[in-house]
Write a structure and sequence with these properties.
It is a single chain. Helix 1 packs parallel to helix 2. The protein contains 14 helices and 19 strands. 33% of the residues lie in helices and 19% in strands. By secondary structure, the chain is α/β, with parallel strands linked by helices. An 8-stranded mixed sheet has the order 10-9-6-11-14-15-17-18, sandwiched between helices. A 5-stranded parallel sheet has the order 2-1-3-4-5, sandwiched between helices. The site of cytidine-5'-monophosphate (C5P) has 15 residues, from helix 12 and strand 14.
């Protein structure tokens, strides 16, 4: 999920990233990208073209990565720097990628360190174009991109539409934001066979149940746990659908986000999709009740007097109501947020809702539950003892859950 916590974590931790920077105004964003990747635990080697150095100084990158920024093909570090780099890195990301770079890469030129290293590597290559929208739409640029994608297997990330450099228009041409590029790099680094081509369905966030046109019943769920799961499943290579109640979080990268408001709406989307899911994770904090009737006019104090009562009607239990439609052999994960008898209540949910795993946490514990970025969970499964995990970021909890889902997927073939 873009903007999630910048602590060393999978899949960036301990991995080597070659960040190519070419001559575009968007190069100022690459400094942030290099810094974020370093904070995520990656070892980042930055290679700047001559044109890039018209915009940003190598020293700036050295400051944020703690490593020498590389500029020349023929350096004292040896003429074979490109060969060594090409072999050692786990992923190459060129951001920003100018029209000139795309042309040179498509031709297989070897006239600078960046292009030469591209020829010498077999690591995945991600290219993040950045240029004026008319240039991007030019047939030659498009042809170069097609060649890079189809012939060389490069991944093209972006560009986005939106304001370009001063006075340059609004069409597609803008480089993706660093947080999005970090996820594309994570996707290249995180691929896992158990998840390749698998379909993952995640529910997240609260639901809102209308009392009248302006008020609703809701809860304090931020959606963070479900969003982290969806993003992490995409990084592992799954096709992910995230069905989310109202949340302030940014849409995860690469994920099909379906926004809903009420439990009924969430139920309808899950019912429609669960039959195709290899994995379903029920991370939403669904309101158990909704106002029995939603008033069509705003409730007024003067009309109601000092007391008001609202009749509530039960919402569908989405996990239970859609159990019959699950794909045979699929893995289903539920959550249990409890305030007492954590393990007993969670174990009951494992049975009664037909979950393969239940992620249990205690709402009263500090650093766990709603509105925080950390969680302390115990994972219950059908086999084996409950596993109590330490206090972790929700991103790390997501990885722990998916490790177990991956093992179940593997064992079910
Ligand atoms: O019974 P409880 O609400 O504690 O169960 C929690 C689990 O059931 C979670 O995985 C939650 O997403 C799911 N759930 C659901 N529909 C509801 C209530 C809970 O899918 N109406």
């Amino acid at each position: 999920m873009p903007g999630a916590e910048l602590i060393p974590r999978r899949p960036w931790r301990g991995r080597r990233v070659l960040l190519g920077v070419t001559g575009s105004i968007a190069a100022y964003k690459s400094v942030q990208l290099a810094r974020d990747l370093t904070r995520l635990g990656a070892q980042v080697d930055v290679v700047l073209t001559d044109a890039a150095q018209q915009f940003v100084a190598p020293l700036l990158f050295e400051g944020v990565t703690g490593r020498k920024a590389l500029t020349g093909l023929f350096t004292v570090e040896g003429a074979a720097l490109h060969v060594r780099l090409g072999q050692e890195v786990d992923v190459v990301c060129v951001a920003p990628a100018t029209a000139d770079f795309l042309a040179r890469a498509a031709q297989g030129r070897a006239d600078d360190l960046l292009c030469t290293t591209l020829l010498a590597t077999r690591a995945p290559v991600i290219v993040c174009p950045a240029m004026n929208d008319r240039m991007f739409a030019h047939p030659q640029v498009q042809e170069n991109l097609t060649h890079l994608r189809e012939r060389l297997g490069y991944r093209i990330a972006g560009p986005a539409a939106g304001a370009l450099a001063a006075g340059e228009g609004e069409g597609p041409g803008r480089m993706l934001e660093p947080t999005e590029i970090e996820e594309h790099i994570g996707h290249a680094l995180g691929a896992e066979p158990a998840f390749a081509g698998r379909s993952v369905l995640v529910t997240a966030g609260p639901t809102r149940e209308a009392l009248d046109p302006v008020r609703y019943l809701g809860n304090r769920s931020s959606g963070r746990m479900g969003y982290a799961l969806a993003q992490a499943a995409w990084r592992r290579g799954a096709d992910v659908t995230l069905v989310s109640g109202p949340s302030a979080l940014e849409a995860p990268v690469g994920v099909d986000l379906v926004r809903v408001e009420t439990a009924d709406e969430m139920h309808a989307v899950v019912a429609e999709r669960i039959g195709r899911a290899d994995v379903t994770v029920f991370a939403a904090a669904v309101a158990d009740y909704r106002p029995a009737e939603s008033r069509s006019e705003k409730v007024k104090r003067e009309a109601e007097g000092p007391e008001i009562s609202v009749a509530l009607a039960a919402n569908p239990d989405i996990a239970r109501a859609t159990a019959g439609a699950r794909r045979p052999g699929s893995v289903v994960v539920g959550f249990a947020l409890e305030t007492s008898d954590l393990l007993a209540n969670a174990a009951r949910k494992l049975e009664s809702k037909g979950f393969d795993l239940v992620v249990a946490n205690d709402a009263t514990e500090e650093g766990a539950g709603f509105e925080v970025t950390t969680n302390r969970v115990t994972i219950l499964s059908r086999e084996g003892k409950p596993e109590a995990l330490p206090l972790l970021s929700k991103d790390e909890v997501a990885e722990e859950i998916l490790d177990r889902v991956g093992r179940l997927l593997g064992s079910r073939g």
